[in-house]
Amino acid sequence: MKNKLSIYLIKESITDINNIFKDNLQELHEYTPDKKVYFVGSHKHPPTWLKSFFDIEDKRLFQANSKVVLLIRRTYGTNQRIFALTFGYSKTLFKEDVIEEQFGLKIVLNTAKANEIRKISKQNIGGNQKQSQEQIPQKGKISDFGFNITNDLMKMVTASCSDETFEKAVITGGDIFSLTVDRKINNVEEFLDYCYQKFISTLYKENFEWIDNVKAITSKETIDVLNNQVINKIKHNDFENIWMAVPEVIKWEQIKCFKYSGSRDEYDDIDINDFLITIDNMEDLSMNKLKNKTIRAISAENENNDLYSWSAQKCLIAEIEYESRSYCLNNNKWYQIDHSFETKIKDEYLTIPIYGTELPNYKSNGRTTYTENEYNEDLAQEINAALIHRVGEIPFGGGRGNKIEVCDILTQNKELIHIKKSGGSSLLSHLFNQAAVSGEALLDAEFRAKYNSRLQEEGFASYIDNDFRSNNYTVVLGIISKGNEQRPQIPFFSKVAIRYATKTLSNLGYNVAIRNIHSEELN
Q1: Per the structure, how many domains does the chain have?
Q2: I need a labelling partner for 54 at 20 to 30 A (CA). Which of 309, 314, 451, 521 fits?
């Protein structure tokens, strides 16, 4: 009989099982001193929604969860490693920072062929840290997915495989390695040994070398320096490249709310400003303090149950430029960008043409408030252009929710100008994505007709040609910042994002240019 195995590898530095779990688990059975099963007792309880929604109390309805973990210690040369096989929803039992990252991912990529991928889970590192999953009905290559090797960090992958030891199963790997095989308690050790050999292999570099573009930092000294950089920025309310977010793909439909330790308030999402209100003394803020603060996702089924639970440190995201190198904090891990990859991205950014027309400074001229839209109005009058932000968004592709803002300013010289304040990679990523999506939409004749009709309603000429040719148009990315240079000084991860957008637009035939807009308000 085959069994579903969910396997974790405990970090090499952790050899005492007392340092693995958050709480003291009960021992269920000992096979050998190096092979023991632990569990958390199951407790029946009525579902909370039975009372809170239906206002019913009925002893016939109960819920219960089983959590079991098998620990097996193995020796490889002079190294001892501990494997953890989980049954039931047991991942929440582990302490943070005890599980070997990319254990399962490396196994899958060292096992599967380049054309055997079925599903991927990824996270964008070029801006808003978007997490997503994509699946295809048959096995294929990475290029068959919406995966960009310069923008996306591989979190988990599922693949078919022809490996005999893995019984030609469908295998899934992230930090966890998961598959269904004909293995039981009496023949699992040699199977784990095979998994470990797959993990330490470097065969993945033949087809997936790009996953090393972003590498985890292991130097404690470097990590301490970067942590201090982030904490100092938070203390000074500098959140330009720092925010908080759910650290994994979750089942939102099963969550009632989020709660921060030290507060009874309920929140619909995780936000750094809401979280910081729960900090007693900001002067004493440290990464250790964040590590000891818990953020809980409360189950909609049972309000006494945490469906997910993370330290605040794990939910913190940051992008740091330090000593001319780029770093990213994500999921409690600092990542350093491969030097050659970083150099390539920075060099490519310098090749984007500068927009030839000098754009006026962003300044309020005594007004109490001054918005991007107000700047667009001033700019449109100065360069005698159609004021597109009045036009608003145009429906595209069906559905009320699918609307596209073509640009902020459309000039008579066929220039599509997109403007955004520099506020970190997440905001700039939105700007670049907007430009790319707009460029694709304008290739559609029906969309152009709607757009020209809206222009005429607003009293503007139809500047979009009926016989549209993208190479007659220039997409201009205007970034409002405190810098004085013509080329905006943007974070490294924004350069990763703009690389994708400019390549997309260029492949569609557009000319692309960039220009800094000096802000007198940001100094």
Answers
A1: 3
A2: 309
The residue-averaged pLDDT of 12-30 equals 88
Q: Does a structural domain hold residue 306?
A: yes
Q: Are residues 312 and 367 in the same domain?
A: no
On average, the pLDDT of the chain sits at 86
Q: Is residue 374 part of a domain?
A: yes
Q: Which pair of tokens denotes residue 417?
A: 């100008």
Q: Is the Cα torsion angle 46, 49, 51, 52 positive or negative in sign? A: positive
CA distance 43 to 66: 9
Q: In whole angstroms, what is the distance from residue 270 CA to residue 317 CA?
A: 12
The Cα 316–Cα 281 span in angstroms is 18
Q: Do 192 and 255 lie in a common domain?
A: no
| E strand intervals along 166-268 | 170-173, 177-181, 214-216, 242-244, 255-260
Q: Beta-strand (E) ranges in 89-174?
A: 117-124, 131-140, 152-160, 170-173
Return the half-sphere exposure (C-beta side, CA atoms, 13 A cut-off) of residue 307. 20
Q: What count of other Cβ atoms lies within 10 Å of the Cβ of residue 42? A: 12
Instruction: Give a yes or no: residue 121 inside a domain.
Output: yes
How crowded is the C-beta side of 364, counted as CA atoms within 13 Å? 9
Does residue 234 share a domain with residue 151? no
Whether 523 is covered by a domain: the verdict is: no
Alpha helices per DSSP H over 364-491: 372-382, 425-441, 445-457
Task: Provide the residue range defining the domain that includes 464.
Answer: 346-518
Beta-ladder partners of 135: 119
Instruction: Identify the domain boundary among 210, 241, 274.
Output: 210
- 471-510 pLDDT, tens digit per residue, is 999 999 999 988 889 999 887 878 888 888 999 999 999 9
